[in-house]
Amino acid sequence: MLIQWFPGHMAKAKREALEKLKMVDLVIELLDARLPESSRNPLIDEIIGNKPRLIVLNKADLADKTATKEWLEYFKQDNKAQRAVSISTLNNKDVENIKRELKAMMAHKTQAMIAKGVKPRAIRLMILGIPNVGKSTLINKLMQKNRAQTGNRPGVTKGQQWLKIGGDFELLDTPGILWPKFEDQLIGQKLALTGAIKDTVFHKDDVALFALRHFMQYYPGRLQAFYKVDEKEFEGAVPDLLMELTTKLRFGEDYSRASERIIFDIRGGKLGPYTLDQVPVRLGEAGEGLTE
C-alpha cells in the first residue's frame, strides 16, 4: 500500500512559506509528541533551513512522558542553536512557556536594539507543521481567542495572514504542509494511526496490524488489560492476534470493523499515552524511553 496525499494547495503553501520566511525572525516547528520524528516534514526542514527555530512537541498529554523527555534532549543536542519544549495546547501554562522561550531566543537581538536607542519591535514568527498537528489550536491559545478554524480533519486551516499576539509578537499564519508521498510506509501507518492523514487514503487492516505489533513490543500489558487477552496469545503472528480480537469484539470475521475499533480505541486514549517513534540510538538504545 503506497499512501500518496499532496493536494495542490499544499504545494502552493510551500512556495508562499519560502517567500515569507525572510520576513520572520524565527520559526516554531510544531510536531506531534507521539511522532517526534515521523511528523518532521522534510519539506518543512528544507523551508526552515538555518533560521532559528523552536521545536514544540504538541499533544504531550497523549504521549509517553519518558520518551518525550528523551526526545526533547535529543532535539536540543541535535542543534545547539534551537530549543525544544513539550506542551498540551489545553494547558495555558504551556502556551505561556512558549512565549518565554521565544523571547529568550530573541533576547540578543532585542538587547542590541535597545543599546542602539531603538525601541524593540514585535518578534515576527511563523508556525509550520503537518496538518492536524494542532497548529490552529495553538494559534488560538496564543491569541487567547477562537480565531483559527479548527477540526479533526487534516488540512482544515486555510489562507495566510498576519496575526498580532499582544504587543510582543506578530505571527504569519501559514497552512500546514505535507510531503508529496510517503516513501516509508511505516511513517504513513504511524500518521494514519494518530489521525494525521485522512482515513480514506489507507487500509485500516494495515494500520491496525502495525498498531498491534507496536503495542505488543512496547506496551504489551496495556493490550492484555484492555482487551483481556492472555500473554500466550502474543506468541503467535500479529494477524492471528487480530483474528482473536475480532472474535472477542464480536465482529465475527469482519476484520475491517475490528481494525477500525482498535484504531479508534488507541486514538481515543483508551490504551493510555503512547509514543510511536523511538529516540535514535545516539542517546541510548532505540525505544528505551517507551514505558508501560
Please state the second-level CATH architecture of the largest domain.
3-Layer(aba) Sandwich
- Poorly predicted sequence stretches spanning 5 or more consecutive residues: 148-153, 283-287
Strand order of the largest sheet: 3-2-1-4-6-5
User: How does the helix and strand content classify structurally?
Assistant: alpha/beta
How many H/I helices? 11
Give the number of domains.
2
What is the number of E strands? Answer: 6
Q: Characterize the largest beta sheet: strand count, sense, and whether it forms a barrel.
A: 6 strands, mixed
Q: How would you describe the shape?
A: elongated
Q: Please report which band the strand proportion falls in: under 5%, 5-15%, 15-25%, 25-35%, 35-45% or over 45%.
A: 5-15%
Provide the CATH topology of the largest domain: Rossmann fold
Average of the residue pLDDT scores: 84
| CATH homologous superfamily label of the largest domain | P-loop containing nucleotide triphosphate hydrolases
SSE pattern, N- to C-terminal? HEHEHEHHEHEEHHHHH
Distance between the termini: 31 Å
Radius of gyration: 21 Å
Measured as a percent range, the helix fraction is 40-55%
* CATH top level label of the largest domain: Alpha Beta
